[in-house]
Amino acid sequence: MDLRAVRYMGRARLLHDLVVSAVCLLVAFPLVTWLRGWPGVPLELRQQLGLLAVIAPIWALVFRLVRSDQPMRTRARWHQVGVVVRSVTLGVGLLAAFLYLTRLVEVPRSVLVAFFGLNLVVGVASRLAIHEILRVARARGQNTKQIVIVGTTRRARRMADLFADHPEWGLKVVGLLGRNGLGRALVGKEVHGMPVLGTVEDLLKVLREVVVDEVVFAVPEIELDQVEEALKVCEMMGVQARLMMDFADPPVARVAVDKLGSIPMISFSATAEGSLGMAVKGMFDSVGALALIVVLSPVLLACAVAVRLSSPGPILFRQKRCGLNGREFVMFKFRSMVDGADDMKTSLAEYNEADGPVFKIEDDPRVTRVGRFLRRMSLDELPQLFNVLKGEMSLVGPRPPLQCEVESYEDWQLRRLSMRPGLTGLWQVSGRSTTGFGEWIKLDLQYIDRWSLALDLKILALTIPAVLSGRGAY
Asked: In this structure, are residues 337 and 366 in contact, taking their beta carbons and an 8 Å threshold?
């Protein structure tokens, strides 16, 4: 199986998705008709076929956006499910938007909902069935790919053992290639129980004489200079090549391959910054912050009036905080303390109840009566919606620290600045001010490492009861 076969498999998956969607669309109309007791099918067959013509390019676009054309041989079952869910959700969303904007065909919303549900169920079931059939076939020695590993060290053995541990992948090692020069003495012998077919210099000859579907480079970083020419040989022969990068294997950072201009790069990122999910998060922040400002405008106005009448001083408390990667920004809050409270902090230092570089006093004498209520209900934080709208903060994220706190951080704690700070976060729903500094750090890093849109939604949902209960707020 060469690179052309990989492309054929991708096209086969696209054809599968199109057939499933076409069948589900045609079934959705009579299904809704039967469920709702309509006198007939809402659209004529001609109109349904017109819809299928619209679906085809949309599904082809979605197929590329969610990278369904990538090889699935070594992917887990849950990955197949995720691909289908993303594809169907995005595809039906684009279809609904197209129909709304063009008014090409009036399709009842109930039909679109039925189409979405059917497509999701049938798509997941059929993908999993095909995935399972192929896994069983490969484990029995069918639909296999023949692999040549470049390298004879323990790293080559590690890669071969990985293939042996997963027979359902159908990856069979036919031999090794040794390093140039010293590796020549190993040619014709067995290393790690596998024959050495030649050296890197012999790659073209080996690809001509042996059926090879894929070449895996398992060479030490000091031998990467030998890889460039070998990669060109693989490209010329149309054979897929992989480069084992376990010598650059950070424990937390996400690894991705991309391009900087025309230069291929391997990127290591401690966060999901730049991903589609983060783009959705940014859009959700902007839309959500604007919507909340509009909906909560009476509350914002009432809080502003209460602060103004409660004590002399400005309505808003402005304070410099550290945002993404340490960038300073001015964070807004409703003033909950007497004017000039920061100047009184030194005299109250002995009463600090928080550990680490954080200052907290449960019965802080600087807090006004109105300010205490605002704090208990987290209403003093509402002006930070404008920080979210400006892109300085997110609705969900780590707690934004002061510069003086950051200066006291240990090196490993600085990673909490790798994500935009949030109006709420795991720390907010896990005790708020009762959470110690060490636990704060741990929760923020846990959030960064586990981040997903689903986690953000979960935290937002948990924030409401946490705020209403007033637990840990002072």
From this structure: yes
Please write down the long-range contacts of 427-432, taking CB distance under 8 Å and 24 or more positions apart. 427/398, 427/399, 428/399, 428/459, 428/463, 428/466, 429/459, 429/462, 429/463, 429/466, 431/471, 431/472, 432/466, 432/471, 432/472, 432/473
- Helices 3-36, 45-65: crossing angle, 10 deg rounding: 140
Q: What is the pTM of this model?
A: 0.57
Q: Can you say how many angstroms the Cα of residue 307 is from the centroid of all Cα atoms in its chain?
A: 41
Q: What is the pLDDT of residues 381-407, one digit of tens each?
A: 999 999 999 989 999 999 888 888 888
Torsion angle of alpha carbons 296, 297, 298, 299, nearest 10°? Answer: 50
Tokens at 144, concatenated: 């296999």
To which H or E segment does residue 216 belong?
Answer: strand 214-217
Judge: domain 145-249, CATH 3.40.50.720.
yes
The residue type found at 40 is: G
Contacts of 157 (CB under 8 A, 6+ apart): 192
Assign 257 to helix, strand or coil.
strand
Say whether pLDDT at 311 is over 80: yes
pLDDT tens profile 233-292: 888 888 888 888 766 556 556 666 766 666 766 776 666 665 667 778 888 899 999 999
- Residue 138 confidence (pLDDT): 85
pLDDT tens-place string over residues 331-386:
999 998 887 766 666 666 656 555 556 566 666 777 888 888 888 888 999 999 99
Q: 105 with 51: CB under 8 angstroms?
A: yes
The phi and psi torsions of 365 (rounded to 5 degrees) equal -70, -15
User: CATH 3.40.50.720 occupies which residues in the chain?
Assistant: 145-249
Asked if residues 445 and 399 have their Cβ atoms less than 8 Å apart, the reply is: no
